[in-house]
Specification:
Layout (H helix, E strand, L loop, with lengths): L2 E3 L6 E3 L17 E11 L5 E12 L13 E5 L15 H4 L12 E5 L23 H15 L7 E5 L1 H12 L7 E4 L8 H15 L14 H14 L3 H7 L3 H17 L3 H9 L17 E6 L11 H5 L6 E6 L14 H14 L7
Amino acid sequence: MQLRTLYSVGAMSLLWCAGLGFALGAAFDRPLEGDYVIHDFKFASGESLPELRLHYTYLGRARKDSSGRVTNAVLIMHGTGGSGRSLINDRFSGVLFQKGQLLDAEKYYIILPDGIGHGKSSKPSDGLHARFPQYTYRDMVAAQYALVTNGLDVNHLRLVMGTSMGCMHTFMWGEAYPDFMDALMPLACLPVQIAGRNRVWRDLVMDAIRSDPQWNNGDYTAEPTSALRTAAGLLLIAGSAPIQMQIALPTREAADEFVQKYMPRQMDDLDANDLLYQVNASRDYDPSAGLEKIKAPLIQINSGDDFINPPELGIAEREINRVKGGRFVLLPASKETHGHGTHTWAAVWQQYLAQLLDATKPPEPK
């Protein structure tokens, strides 16, 4: 999930489908954007679209070695409700993509796709509403692969990385295309099916939408406001950071004022069908059976204050043992972490990205 800072001290609120521009130096003044259309895309459900549009943001340019293999492409995938552009901000791209930083855009070809149903890619709110194909994570990853290989002519990835939903997609990439990348860095997820409390709060969001009479089976003429109010509240709690919110909202009055300002602004950014599809797309996610298929070195990072992936479950520690070359890092909850949204605060975990890049550095040509 995509998160943003609402207060200077770091109280967090979910940000859906928004992005902030960030200067990247004279040679890369701004990220560029493009669209790739996949014709007659077949979904796992058996449905199809004559044209599936994949929007993407990118920085830098591809470089190839003497054999024609792309050596510097980096794929970074966003969280639920976000977009590739939403990762262009001071805490993520501002820490990683500038000159001299770990993913310097003058050295790397950085690809930030909008997943199906997100950003400027094809989605229910474009017009089909509830008649839009019932896409799943499997469809989203297949479309990303088509974009990278056919749309952008990239035959190898230096790094695959993702936040939240993108974290889960990273595990799926590692299993589906094990020889396609040098390294994997999933941020803020678990490599098992979504169950327990994680599935329950998603069910509550979906139930709120489906049970609102204004939703009208997806054919609404005005947004079902009661449903979106409930959904926005659940999303806020799921993405909350307890330490950060306690610092930012130290009194009852401050907390009440925050909610009053948060709800209308957040609801303005939501579309009921888009949200319903986004939350439900995870229903086929379960990489646990194929973790041994992953070949590329992998560092998984979660934080101790993550409501969505609570560390007390011990799942990440158990499952990482099945990933050859896999390593799990749990960041202790502190004033430096930001709940589930820690995935976007690159300064907190970039040291592990540096270790991963260094460990997977290709040999110098002779």
